Amino acid sequence: MSTAPRPFDSLAFRNALGSFPTGVTIVTTRDEQGQPVGMTVSSFNSVSLEPPLVLWSIAKTANCFDVFERTDHFAIHVLKEDQHALSDLFGRPSPDDKFDQLPLANGVANSPILPDCGAVFECTLEHRYAGGDHIILVGRVQQFAVSAGNPLVFHAGLYRGLK
Fold it and tell me: Which interval of the chain is the signal sequence (predicted)?
């Protein structure tokens, strides 16, 4: 009988994490030149009501990691169930024209605000923590908005709605 530990299967671990349904968000900010930057994120969570804090994480290998590693503000958009195309657009590493066809508003600290989302949390950076191959960003919610509609849900590699 061998007592050697089995190698950790990262793919199986990722698939196991996929058994937990999550909402789908897009996080936006601006780079140092003022250009909008955004990505699809499922690692969003509430932290505290007082003060109002939320968190999300980004892989160190993400194309826009450098921008989010330096930013001091961001907006988190909770997507509605009919916004899978928007999620897919922001889930791709490129193109740079993600924002071209979207009417943007400017939020707290000039964060780009996407239209027609289920909720938007406009944040200033409260903390940034190392988390393995990710960093965890904790934001203090400066303002938020909510609109009617069911959320987009991601589970087992597929988009789903509430039933």
Answer: none
